[in-house]
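Customer escalation, tier 2.

The customer says the design service returned an amino acid string that "doesn't look like it belongs to this structure." They asked us to rerun it and document both sides in this ticket. The original structure tokens are below, unchanged.
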């Protein structure tokens, strides 16, 4: 079935106020980081926290069955659960093991029955289809459905209406529903616009299918990823041909780039994005030469990130920037020694985050102990200055770890 801009316009017309028109914003710090003008389309501000609400609404408006079922790592789940509840239909969602707790909780809070099954989305989907047949439920595919693709394509309509001067659109790719819909809309409105998709190295399935000559063999498709929302092993049968026809390039990014992007959005832009939502920024940071001198639109597709994971990403970002260090300090094992060394550290202006006092398992005198101290520092060079200060106070210290910004 061919999907056209008319289908996407019809989806937008049918929203009836149920779907938020999300803002497109310029964040100067992100533009400075990328070295080119960047506009962010904030789909993380949708009711369910991601763009998936659009396709779910468009699909469920046409469903007559009393109950529906879907498989999802979280965002499609919440979109289906939210609108099934509003339309008075029972929803069952099969989620793979390891799905973020926050996504499970939010899906259940929307009234859905959640079943945890399978190591990945492919296994979850197979189980969902088995349940659909057994319980006579209508299966709502997360991306390989014309109504879903048309609904997601409304992101492109809005983005180009808000920012008609975009040169490049950068969009996450999992199964391909979002970028397929956006590409249809964007190319119809501006045939000259460049569409770039982004996948993670652990799951480059669409890149390998559509651009096999440009994509390295991954061999890691069962690996875990921060971008769990796009951890899809099998490209969509409907979406892949659309992507082949309308998408100009797919950039594959690694996990460090994804972490850095989540960190940058939070710390520089005050924007909470999940890993899948942040991959357009990861692409800008990975291949800046592709975007130099262009007006770049990035779809921040979702913000449903587990708070514990977000906290870890932010702390790891401090370490990479040399703003958090770990020292090992040798002290005399006697009363007052610990107080003395922490006082000296405090005098340098560093903040003690964690401290471990070890007396065993070291090749040192029985009358000595070692402290492993995690410190938040002012700048990348602060750790070295702390070591020098401790040495002047009579303490031997060594740097155990440092961020990439360290010396």
């Amino acid at each position: 079935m061919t999907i056209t801009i008319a289908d996407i316009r019809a989806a937008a017309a049918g929203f009836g106020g149920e779907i938020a028109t999300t803002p497109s914003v310029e964040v100067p710090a992100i533009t400075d980081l990328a070295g080119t003008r960047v506009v962010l389309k904030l789909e993380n501000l949708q009711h369910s926290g991601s763009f998936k609400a659009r396709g779910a609404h468009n699909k469920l408006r046409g469903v007559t069955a009393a109950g529906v079922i879907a498989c999802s790592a979280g965002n499609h789940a919440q979109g289906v659960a939210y609108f099934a509840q509003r339309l008075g239909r029972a929803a069952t969602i099969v989620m793979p093991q390891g799905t973020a707790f926050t996504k499970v909780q939010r899906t259940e809070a929307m009234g859905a029955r959640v079943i945890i099954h399978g190591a990945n989305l492919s296994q979850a989907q197979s189980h969902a289809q088995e349940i659909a047949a057994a319980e006579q439920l209508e299966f709502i595919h997360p991306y390989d459905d014309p109504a879903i693709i048309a609904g997601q394509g409304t992101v492109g309509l809005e983005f180009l209406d808000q920012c008609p001067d975009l040169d490049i659109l950068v969009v996450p790719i999992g199964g391909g529903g979002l970028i397929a819909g956006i590409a249809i809309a964007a190319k119809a409105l501006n045939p000259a616009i460049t569409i770039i998709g982004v996948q993670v190295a652990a799951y480059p399935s669409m890149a390998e299918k559509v651009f096999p000559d440009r994509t390295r063999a991954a061999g890691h498709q069962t690996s875990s990823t921060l971008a769990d929302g796009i951890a899809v092993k099998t490209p969509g049968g409907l979406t892949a041909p659309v992507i082949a026809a309308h998408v100009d390039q797919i950039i594959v990014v690694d996990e460090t780039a994804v972490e850095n992007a989540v960190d940058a959005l939070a710390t520089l832009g005050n924007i909470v994005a999940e890993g899948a939502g942040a991959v357009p920024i990861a692409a800008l940071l990975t291949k800046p030469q592709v975007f130099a001198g262009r007006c770049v639109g990035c779809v921040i597709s979702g913000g449903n990130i587990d708070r514990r994971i977000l906290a870890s990403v932010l702390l790891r970002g401090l370490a990479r920037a040399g703003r958090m260090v770990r020292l090992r300090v040798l002290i005399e094992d006697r009363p007052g020694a610990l107080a003395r060394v922490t006082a000296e550290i405090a005098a340098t202006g560093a903040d003690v985050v964690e401290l471990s006092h070890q007396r065993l398992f070291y090749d040192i005198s029985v009358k000595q102990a070692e402290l492993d101290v995690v410190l938040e520092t002012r700048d990348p060079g602060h750790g070295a200055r702390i070591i020098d200060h401790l040495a002047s106070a009579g303490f031997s210290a060594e740097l155990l770890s440092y961020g990439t910004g360290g010396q």
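Tier 2 assessment: The sequence is consistent with the input. The chain has 16 helices and 14 strands. The chain has three domains: 5-49+145-317, 53-139, 322-401. Sent an explanation to the customer and offered a walkthrough call.
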